[in-house]
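User: Hi! I have a protein structure encoded as tokens and I'd like to know what sequence might fold into it. I'm fairly new to this, so please keep things simple.
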């Protein structure tokens, strides 16, 4: 059994836990509001059997005290035992309870086998052995049994839950550990026990139906996802093939060639199919403006964000692959090694140029500057070109 929080609601102003239920001679449980003051209450402690004194003065909350003890404190587990017995009596007397919603969740998917509502039954059997366990209450309706457990100081342990599952019976647990008697009438306590206190399913045979349903939905989603990824992979390969048929080059390619930097743009990186122009075009476009600035005496880094903005502005990013989910991208990478997101293509290209000492990565990531020697090389190439032009 697992220990729970103490009955924090059953604490008097002086910090002591109070006993608000006593046991009558016939074994039934009496609330402090139902008995007269003093020993004439004729109640004993439900836990240890000590005669109780009903203390119903004006200075403290009404409660039972142990007769003969110096301070009237209840025994260690008296309040828990009393509340536990009272809850079972309330259930047997009312033959109604609120059952929580029976549901299973799988990520954003949800299966509901039973919407939470009030449930009436025909009879209630208290603490009757069933198989290898003694349930607190067995609620019976027609030929169906529902096990009801009350958690006061201990919640239902794994061994008992395992027995319940072996019996394959529906079972719920109602958490009474935080019930309060202060400012609550007997009727309010009963209402809380029957309908309001937190409750959960320990087992329900219909859960197998829910698990099967969620598994069927998972398979259906997985199959649909696989078909979608296969179609995207085919589209990506088709886009790559289309780019191989394009022979026109943009002006930026010629500028890079004139700067003797053609070695910087001849790279087919994973993700090239995400663009509507061949790699040489979009790589040269990213690099050419940076070279221009360096040659003019200014330093401007290449950033993934800035490069993407520049390419989107030219409408050079294939919309088919620019807004896919991370799950789709991950699956595409695993099934098609040629695939990468546009930003990944830019990073791959920049990494290659860093190894070739054309770019220098800046600490912080996703930023690179032109290597000083490359800037000098471009400067002299342009100077020589201008000299020949003169």
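Assistant: Happy to help. Inverse folding works backwards from shape to sequence: for each of the 390 positions I chose a residue that suits the local structure. Here it is:
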């Amino acid at each position: 059994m697992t220990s729970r929080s103490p009955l924090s609601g059953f604490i008097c102003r002086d910090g002591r836990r109070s006993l608000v239920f006593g046991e009558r001679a016939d074994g039934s449980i009496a609330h402090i509001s139902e008995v007269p003051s003093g020993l004439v209450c004729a109640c004993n402690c439900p836990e240890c059997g000590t005669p109780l004194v009903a203390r119903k003065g004006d200075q403290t909350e009404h409660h039972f005290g142990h007769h003969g003890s110096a301070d009237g404190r209840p025994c260690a587990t008296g309040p828990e035992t009393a509340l536990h017995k009272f809850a079972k009596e309330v259930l047997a007397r009312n033959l109604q309870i609120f059952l929580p919603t029976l549901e299973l969740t799988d990520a954003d998917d949800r299966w509901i086998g039973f919407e939470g509502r009030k449930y009436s039954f025909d009879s209630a059997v208290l603490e009757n052995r069933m198989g290898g366990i003694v349930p607190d209450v067995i609620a019976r309706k027609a030929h169906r049994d529902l096990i009801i457990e009350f958690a006061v100081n201990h919640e239902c342990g794994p061994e008992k839950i395992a027995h319940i599952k072996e019996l394959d019976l529906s079972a719920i647990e109602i958490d009474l550990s935080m019930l309060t008697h202060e400012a609550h009438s007997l009727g309010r306590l009963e209402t809380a026990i029957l309908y309001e206190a937190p409750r959960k399913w320990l087992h329900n045979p219909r859960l197998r139906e829910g698990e099967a349903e969620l598994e069927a939905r998972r398979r259906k989603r997985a199959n649909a996802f696989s078909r979608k990824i296969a179609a995207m992979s085919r589209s990506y390969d088709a886009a790559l093939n289309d780019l191989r048929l394009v022979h026109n080059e943009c002006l930026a390619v010629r500028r890079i060639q004139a700067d003797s930097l053609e070695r910087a743009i001849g790279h087919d990186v994973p993700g090239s199919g995400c663009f509507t122009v061949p790699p040489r075009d979009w790589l040269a476009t990213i690099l050419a403006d940076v070279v221009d600035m360096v040659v003019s005496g200014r330093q401007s880094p290449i950033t993934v964000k800035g490069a993407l903005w520049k390419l989107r502005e030219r409408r050079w990013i294939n919309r088919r692959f620019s807004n896919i989910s991370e799950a789709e991208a991950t699956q595409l990478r695993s099934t098609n090694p040629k695939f990468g997101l546009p930003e990944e293509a830019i990073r791959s290209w920049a990494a290659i140029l860093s190894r070739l000492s054309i770019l220098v990565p800046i600490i912080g990531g996703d930023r690179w500057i032109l290597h000083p020697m490359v800037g000098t090389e471009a400067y002299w190439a342009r100077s020589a070109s201008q000299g020949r032009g003169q």
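A useful reference point when you look it over: The chain has a mean pLDDT of 86. Feel free to ask if any position seems puzzling.
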